[in-house]
Amino acid sequence: MKKILVASSALVAIAFAGQAQASEPIKLSVGGYMEQWAGFADEDNTATGGRKNAFQSDTEVHFKGSTTLDNGIEVGAVIELEGETSGDQVDEQYLYINGGFGRIEMGKNDSAADAMGITAPAVGPVGVNDGDMDQWTNAYLIDTVRSSGDQNRATYYTPVMGGFRAGVSFADDSNRNGASSYNNTDGSGDNIISAGLEFNHDFGGVTLGLSAVGENQGEGNWYGFGSNVGFGNFTVGGSYGHTEDDYGLSDRETKNQDLDAFDLGVSYAMDAASVSLTYGYEDFGTGDISAVDLGLRYALGAGVSWRSSVFWFDQENDTAVDNDGYGVVTGLRLDF
């Protein structure tokens, strides 16, 4: 029996190798984006005082490549490098396998819940939901889809069936990119189980997107729901997220507190221009924050867009100084 198993394994390996040699070798293409922003902000937090800075930048270089085996299965790789960072130089790196069975991803990547979560439409560079408002002010960052970051994980997505698709992820405890305990072997983090369900369909000119996502880390969970509806040039939508007080305590900004957040927004697209108005709110246990963002995006050419945001926020704190303020940000994004 043992000889039969060894011989069978060898035949399978030879067959797979033959298919791989017959397919085209993987050649990586270069892509990514560059964002350069200029702006100002004014806030009333006397403990920190005034704006943080006048300029922001974010750049990533992406290497992607794939090949299709003789059996029709696509195998590919994605490597994303940070243009400027004080932590990990590699943002994400993973391989994927696509076929009639769905999609499998393995490596350091976002969870299924993070990838499938729908939030309110927003076209500006700042936004109110997991955006960059905390990069310009000392505002608490509203988040309805609370990401566990790039972890060593395996993810499976089902094929799309009638507009529905499901996904599930598992990450071990080796911790996220840039964590002090990360050593690619073991760490101090928690195993993370993530899942999502989405529905996307076009009903004769009216598009509908729905998502239900959630994640378990440590002794607690977070979960959220989102929806976008598109008709004509308009898109309206929103999302809600709840985080339990014992979810991922080692990674939480506010520990031992339940978090409840939501956002609502509308966008309008006309030729090369898009505009959006988005409102966000979060109760983070020791206070709450409301924020509004008016965003503008204008396509100047292929891969070049001018984007701007005018934003305002009001944060009430139970145990610290209250803060409110506003800001204006503008700049260019290049996609290549």
From TrEMBL:
Its main location: membrane. Keywords: Cell outer membrane, Ion transport, Membrane, Porin, Signal, Transmembrane, Transmembrane beta strand, Transport. Gene3D superfamilies: Porin (2.40.160.10). It comes from the Bacteria. One of its GO terms (molecular function) is porin activity. GO terms for biological process: monoatomic ion transport. Residues 1-22 form the signal peptide. InterPro entries: Gram-neg_bact_OMP, Gram_neg_porin_domain, Porin_dom_sf. It is found in: Cell outer membrane. Homotrimer. This is Porin.
